[in-house]
Amino acid sequence: MKRILVTGGCGFIGSNFVRMALNKIKGIHITNLDALTYAGNLKNLIDFKDSANYAFVKGDIRDGKLVSTLIKDGRFDLVVNFAAESHVDRSILDPSDFISTNIAGTQTILNAAMTFQVPLFMQVSTDEVYGSLGPDGYFTEITPLAPNSPYSASKASADMLVRAYFHTYNYPTIITRCSNNYGPYQFPEKFIPLFVTNALENKPVPLYGDGKNVRDWIHVEDHCEALWTVAEKGKPGEVYNIGGNCERANVDIAREILRLVGKPDSMIQFVKDRPGHDRRYAIDNAKIIKELGCKPKWNFTDGLKSTIEWYKKNTAWWQEIKSGEYKNYYAKQYGK
Ligand code: NAD
Ligand code: TDX
Question: Tens of pLDDT along 82-96?
């Protein structure tokens, strides 16, 4: 596995994956194709700007001509598709980019990878495609897909296409479905970085509904390690769930963040619920542990502490984001 094409490598998980792979594996080369939407930030990988092992290409996975030329000339051993519109609340405000990037964009790059015989295509998907759980049970790889938001519907559609390319054309693809990530470089629209940065700015933290929705949290480094393991040892045609074994209610995380930042619980502001808000996600990760020997290493309290330290040290990174286009989104979403 020498030459890798990563899409969406300027976002949160993609940039952590590129950093981990370049630091850990000798002799690889990564090309990062990213459209630099509001969520893509060149600063996330500034350390590798002049590295001989890294190349950045500004471009859109929906651009068939560009994608074909890049893959035809690239001699890639692997494509890892991170590029996506990723925020559920934005998909509720306007689904159109979610449909075009997450579905049509995935098909465009998948088709080019097959046409120019890249040996493996990995689709980075999400546990949200399985829908919502009640108080009991877990998502396994054979849980039926039942997406509830325009975001998760678009990711489920992409998964179906990736599956179809394996079954119809015998093209080697793998789908991974991970639970909620947290860690450095996460865009401050998402729950944990939004609450951490609002708390640091002495602003209220907006908790949806009764705050009792449950997510299964995983540190982004554990997700990236798992993706690398899947790339090396995973079986084409398979789906692998990736989870953190770490279910938490949102209200408990909100309180833990405020305690770690040294702010009172009274900063929690209960706000109108997200429409169609999934109640609970929980991953059964027995398959990836048993078949590929891959387990998460971070414990949540240490991971949250180190994430908060990262946001404290990198105030310029998120303050620049929060004072840009994001201000308009925040005003629309939270009425401020
Ligand atoms: P992100 O929003 O932080 O980053 C997305 C990146 O994709 C950005 O750099 C953006 O510029 C790029 N991009 C968007 N549209 C593009 C297009 N048309 N062409 C090229 N580049 C484009 O997202 P993230 O949180 O890092 O998520 C990465 C992937 O992982 C997504 O596919 C997401 O569905 C999946 N995922 C995320 C989580 C999570 O908790 N964040 C969990 C499971 C799976
Ligand atoms: O302001 C908020 N208040 C709040 O209570 C925000 C932004 C979120 N929430 C709640 C909604 C969810 O129950 O926190 C939980 C987490 O919300 P998000 O960070 O928006 O994540 P989620 O909707 O669970 O989706 C995430 O995990 C799966 C990622 O954004 C997806 O890309 C990934 O596929």
Answer: 999 999 999 999 999
Angle at 104 between CA 224 and CA 169, to 5 degrees: 80
Task: Summarize pLDDT for 50-59 with one digit per residue, the tens.
Answer: 999 999 999 9
**Total domains present in the chain:** 1
Atom of ligand 2 nearest to the CA of 191: 19
Return mean pLDDT, the chain. 97
273: closest CA among 132, 98, 89, 85? 89
Q: Tell me which residues have their CB closer than 6 angstroms to ligand 1.
A: 7-8, 10-14, 34-37, 39-40, 60-62, 82-86, 101, 105, 124, 126, 155, 178, 180-181, 187
CATH number of domain containing 208: 3.40.50.720
Q: 0.90 cut: is pTM over it?
A: yes
Domain that residue 187 falls in? 3-334
In the sheet with 247-249, reading across from the earlier edge strand, the strands are: 180-182, 214-219, 247-249
Q: Is 254 exposed, middle or buried (0-12, 13-18, 19+ CB in 10 A)?
A: buried
Asked if 73 is an active-site residue, the reply is no
